[in-house]
Amino acid sequence: MARVRVRQHVNPLSRKYRQPLILPEWDTVYSHLDRPLHLDIGCGRGKFLLKMAPLYPEINFLGIEIREPLVIEANEQRDNLQLSNLHFLFCNINLYIDSILESFPPQVLDCVTIQFPDPWFKRSHQKRRVVQPGLVNAIATYLVRDGSVFLQSDIKEVAEEMADNFLANTCFQKQHSETWLKENTFPIPTEREIATLNKNQPVYRVSLQLTAVS
Prior knowledge:
Elements: H1 26-29, E1 37-41, H2 47-55, E2 60-65, H3 68-81, E3 86-90, H4 93-102, E4 109-115, H5 133-142, E5 148-153, H6 156-167, E6 172-174, H7 191-198, E7 204-210
Parallel strand pairs: 1-2, 1-4, 2-3, 4-5
Antiparallel strand pairs: 5-7, 6-7
Helix pairs in contact: 4-5
């Protein structure tokens, strides 16, 4: 399959990415809809989930990506691998996270990962960053008690802001005493993580747990 070329950054606030969301019938997507759900926000080409899903067949995985060609490509690869516990969805997560999560059975969201999101360095563009208070509140509402959130970035400022936004919600606590986790908590690194470590550059990681019900 030819690798799809798409823009690296797209503006989530533009009208193009505010179109209505059409959700699939989840029981036709997943073979066992009541299994724990791992939500990966900003999944890119989906390589992380395409490797995680075969390792953990007892977990359902859902990747969210705002660049539709990448979603189409990832679902084609999912079909080629015949994975019945994985799906990729094209949408603007900050607009539709409640609609997505309320469409699943209650108490299935077990883990959320947000890895190397677009940094949007300019101050005027920072409202385009994916981790906003509304997103955090929605995750706190639907995540199971003791469910986990894993964040990582190669940009310290972005990692700090993501962590601060989650910790501003008193339902979340860090799962480690050190400022940054030294190791990834998952056995599969993302493409960006591999590239960053290969350049001997740091990765800033935080693992959080939902300790109170929203």
